[in-house]
Amino acid sequence: SYVLTQPRSVSVAPGKTATISCGGDTIGTKSVHWYQQKSGQAPILIISYNGDRPSGVPERFSGSNSGNTATLTIDRVEAGDGADYYCQVWDSTYDQIFGGGTKLTVV
Amino acid sequence: QITLKESGPTLVKPTQTLTRTCNLSGLSLNNRGEGVAWIRQPPGKALEWLALVYWDDDKYYRPSLKNRVTITKDTSKNQVVLKLTDVDPVDTATYFCAHGEGAGSWFFDYWGPGILVAVST
To answer: Hey, is B64 helix, strand or coil?
Structure first.
């Protein structure tokens, strides 16, 4: 089965850059989507197709995907960016289409 | 404005069938290239997709749950229904419905708020 691996947690200081990885076998050949989920809320789509930002998502959020790793980058991190972040691919034959999630802490 | 909202019992006994209804507003279940999925999240854990129904009524299920889960859509009521049979306490989770779209790779751009469903005696 296909596995998407994310770090459990990432810490970053306000104003700095946060990077969250999503590892998977030849994930660079797939389209990766990213979600932000704040405590007690539904997830929000923040990146589609590796690097496209839906309307309303700040330009500080960007994505890339190559080889065995997709990456979400958040520039000039703000306190309000603290949340759980999930990567997602689509294949109906997979049990796991979401990564395990990364908790971003702004310290 | 597109909104989704889940409804259904929030407490289910073990071995019973869990039923969740997703009511959609602002979008049609007949739109080509779109669909609705059910995704759950056990307390403190990651998201798990369960099922997806396409605009053309094609259906896809999480392989490990395929024998227990059913998704159906009622276009006249603009509803999508999830049924999960023979539930166990491990099925306790917040169940979300989400609007999906994508060409070749589905993503979920609108989500319902989700409601925690507990499986317990």
So the answer is: helix
